[in-house]
Amino acid sequence: MIEGIAVSFETIPVGGALPEVGVFHEVARLGSVIFEVAFRFAAPVTVAIFVQNVVTGVLGRAMPQLNLLIVNLPLHAGMLFLIIGLGASDMLHVFKDVLEAWPSRVFSLVIGER
């Protein structure tokens, strides 16, 4: 990482000229890849928490004496840990190629190669 920062100052000196427009398009493309990976990571957890909220809401209507504010937070935490624990290895296996190639893409972009 330190090498990448040093190379970035050599490539684009402070107060120097800006890179060409294609570099900014490449940065935007890399950002969209990271957004896609983050969305794909978060989608299963979001759906599971939504389903858990619906079930908790139905349970709250069936049993009005149940305090949902006290019950819901531990259920959210437990559901989150369960999903991450069961799916973390599969998620890392699926996204391994993207996660391994991203730093080299960024460094080649900083150096000026495409």
Quick gist of this model?
The protein is mostly helical and 114 residues long. 83% of the residues lie in helices and 0% in strands.
Write the layout of secondary structure elements.
Layout: H1 2-11, H2 21-62, H3 68-94, H4 96-111
Helix pairs in contact: 2-3, 2-4
Would you give an account of this structure?
- This protein has helices spanning about 1-10, 20-60, 70-95, 95-110.
- Helix 2 (about 20-60) packs antiparallel against helix 3 (about 70-95) and helix 2 packs antiparallel against helix 4.
- The model has no long low-confidence stretch (mean pLDDT about 80).
- It contains four helices and no strands.
- The radius of gyration is 22 Å and the shape is elongated.
- The protein is mainly α and about 110 residues long.
- It has one domain (about 1-110).
The general outline is elongated
Q: What is the number of strand segments? A: 0
Radius of gyration: 22 Å
Helix count from the secondary structure assignment: 4
Oligomer: single chain
Helical fraction equals over 70%
Helix/strand order = HHHH
